[in-house]
Automatic annotation (TrEMBL), chains A, B:
Cofactors required: FAD
Protein name: Glycolate oxidase/D-lactate dehydrogenase
Keyword Flavoprotein in annotation: yes
PANTHER family: GLYCOLATE OXIDASE SUBUNIT GLCD
Keywords, sorted A to Z: FAD, Flavoprotein, Oxidoreductase
Recorded superkingdom: Bacteria
Record-annotated FAD-binding PCMH-type domain positions: 38-217
InterPro entries: FAD-bd_oxidored_4_C, FAD-bd_PCMH, FAD-bd_PCMH-like_sf, FAD-bd_PCMH_sub2, FAD-linked_Oxase-like_C, FAD-linked_OxidoTrans_Type4, Oxid_FAD_bind_N, Vanillyl_alc_oxidase_C-sub2
């Protein structure tokens, strides 16, 4: 890449104030939230303000065959926005306006650089609700959430980001600006490019606008905690809850090591016999939530819960969530290093997953802590270790992925593949991988859009 | 195509009893449910029983460059399964087993040839519920529903077929058997081929198994009817209902001509002043449905409804639905010919759509009847005409599509493009069409899978 030439072209195309080549800028955009850190410093960082700018940037990059790295807040955990081969980081920071809240159609039209939390607060002012809530929602952007198809605790009831994207304006690798999806609630006109692009981690198109579905804000919420002597009982309660027609808004599971860590850290009175803890939240109409949380806790009692606590006040609710929120600081104290794998299995396989993970941890003599969104089978497996145990951990993680796939699960429920999990994708998708590569080549023949992510082209 | 050679290859590959070449068979599979009838008699009709058979059939067809027409019940309305260029019809009739109802994970694994209604009845025996309900559900198949991404009245609350497909086993054009999607509730591992294939009308892959999400069967249902002096009032009530946090299970709108036709046909006492009629159904927990239907009717009252009827008994509920069900037989009486276009607009644009359709009908001096799933903006526009008015109707339909797109809608909410609506797809998807074609070429380079559907390859 002839950086000076490309810089000149870009400055002519979108204005020199939007093109940065100083080492300060380049270093600041060299990494994302992935624990293992940055891979390469980009050659340029650009800040388009509209789809025309993006189209010009991509046209130049396509002509010159230069890598483009679309970037929201850079908070991804698998290297999705990291510039691994040099090239141009294209930030959405200056495309950060909410364009229209459409109260009649329960929808919002937004630019990609808007922070998810900010969008949620704005629509809530109108009594509306945008459910997706990845842990990063206070700083990650809508565009990044769409590129990664972000989830979150609430997705057990409300679905993932994909379920809220109705229409996208995108720019393809050749600079073509197009709309995919529909502002209508349903449409079967042509191929569903919208759902193909959502979750494609910036490798198929650059998102420049999103028309997102909203729902009315739920009237009321109820929260409870159930403590089980056996993890299998907690897992069974999760499965039975759905059969009892309770779809919880959140259904968080903590295993024995999680409970011990939280208790040591926060001293909130969790019993030492506890091997499983469920935090269950329901929401909906004011007149039904008490009945729903009672039903959920009845399911827990029947599955073997020894203690049940239903929050009667906002303070009690906060106390219950405190156990969950203490987890991250609590386990950070356990060992100097941590790796968090984001696996997901069919709900009924959660006990097998946790049992198998314990066996793997025992085999490699490693500390493991499991917790997560049990309602949708998404368990965060955390190995806690000393620096010298790195290689052991890598082997253990590979076994966890094998186990997950044997249980008909997926190697990533929320975080994506990026460059970190490329090795494991073929294990999961098998023969379909070649078809994914064929689509990539068809839409981005020069491989300029986020190259080296999800898979390498052979 | 050398029919004798291909017939021989196929008989060797999958058994001669599964390959039919008699004119009786070929004529019986020459058409689908599209009103304008069949286009071409196929050369062969084959009946695979598993994915290995399908893989062999597609491998032979790919080698010989022969068109393949995947076919469920052949009930599509836009020619999706019609064999328009000769070639081989591949029927899923012999792949009609429900393989597993997974009660723990609320899912069902099925072959594609199972009739949707049969699947619904089977899962209901376990207290489970498969919501998608296209009008054809008593005879159309799951595979066909997936290929067309079928909707139905209930999709306003429960979503379309796509929202219930978790994983598919498919065969690609080159014979590759692969799984797409995941049995886990969420997965972000690689490209979302599953949602690309759903709704692709058999042009990208042949579906051989489907793992479908189920939900617990709702405990109770309530039904009501509201009659409005003005169509705008009825449309406004639909929009306001969502703001009042009532998501109806069904929300069917009848316009003035529909009401008059039903009244003339069934004499059920609908008032002559009525220009809009809403049938609203809610479902959910037994303890909340009375409150919900009251809320919905309060919204209707405020929007201007003159008469409200909430069904107190199953008999009264049937009476309300009788108005809706009488529509098809009632309008058939009006004129010798009918064309039903399945357009969809954002909910708030329904009044503009209906007003615009009336103007178009007036301009061409045609009779038009509008009704449909107002909750999701999906209006069935029916022109009723004499045979000699055919050409006028065609022009009017084109104007209806233009109007729909001006209102940011879609030319097909449920029925698909097939070969009937190919002309109108570019109007809606614009620049994205070339990207759809690129994907088709990448996955099916010899264009054997349902060629000539959705678009023609140039």
């Amino acid at each position: 890449m002839n950086v000076e030439k490309v810089e000149k072209y870009l400055k002519e195309a979108i204005g020199k104030e939007r093109v940065k080549s100083s080492i300060d800028f380049r270093a600041a955009y060299a990494y994302d939230g992935t624990p293992t850190g940055y891979k390469a410093i980009p050659d340029l960082v650009v800040f388009p303000e509209n789809e025309e700018h993006v189209s010009k940037i991509l046209s130049i990059a396509n002509e010159e065959k230069i890598p483009i790295y679309p970037r929201g807040a850079g908070s991804g955990l698998t290297g999705g926005s990291a510039p691994i081969n040099g090239g141009i980081v294209v930030s959405t920071e200056k495309m950060n306006r909410i364009l229209e809240i459409d109260e009649d159609n329960l929808a919002v039209l937004t630019e990609p650089g808007v922070v998810t939390y900010d969008l949620q607060k704005e629509v809530e002012k109108k009594g509306l609700f945008y459910p997706p809530d990845p842990s990063s929602y206070k700083y990650s952007t809508i565009g990044g959430n769409i590129a990664e198809n972000a989830g979150g605790p609430r997705c057990v009831k409300y679905g993932v980001t994909k379920d809220y994207v109705m229409q996208l304006e995108v720019v393809f690798a050749d600079g073509t600006i197009a709309k995919v999806g529909s502002k209508a609630v349903k449409s079967v006109a042509g191929y569903n490019l919208k759902d193909l692009i959502v979750g494609s981690e910036g490798t198929l198109a650059f998102i420049t606008k999103a028309y997102l579905k909203l729902i009315p804000k739920p009237e009321a919420v109820r929260t409870a905690m159930a403590i089980f002597p056996k993890i299998e009982q907690a897992a069974q309660a999760v499965a039975n809850m759905f059969k009892a027609k309770v779809i919880p808004t959140a259904c968080e599971l903590l295993d024995k090591n999680s409970i011990v860590a939280v208790e040591n850290y926060a001293k909130i009175g969790l019993p030492s016999y506890a091997e499983g803890l469920l935090i269950v939240e329901v929401d909906g109409y004011a007149s039904i939530v008490d009945e729903l949380i009672e039903r959920a806790m009845e399911v827990c009692r029947k599955a073997g819960a020894e203690e049940i606590k239903i929050a009667k006040t906002e303070e009690e609710r906060e106390h219950i969530w405190h156990a969950r929120r203490s987890l991250s600081p609590a386990i950070v104290n356990l060992k100097p290093k941590k790796i968090n794998e984001d696996v997901v299995v069919p709900r009924s396989r959660i006990p097998d997953l946790i049992k198998g993970v314990y066996e793997i941890a025992k085999k490699y003599d490693l500390m493991v802590v499991n917790f997560g969104h049990a309602g949708d089978g998404n368990i965060h497996v955390n190995f806690m270790y000393e620096p010298h145990e790195e290689e052991k951990v890598e082997r253990a993680v590979r076994e966890v992925f094998r186990l997950t796939l044997n249980l008909e699960g997926s190697v990533s429920g929320e975080h994506g593949i990026g460059w970190m999990k490329k090795e494991f994708l073929p294990w999961e998708v098998g023969e379909a991988l070649e078809k994914m590569k064929a689509i990539k080549k068809a839409l981005d023949p020069n491989n300029i859009l986020n190259p080296g992510k999800i898979f390498d082209l052979s």
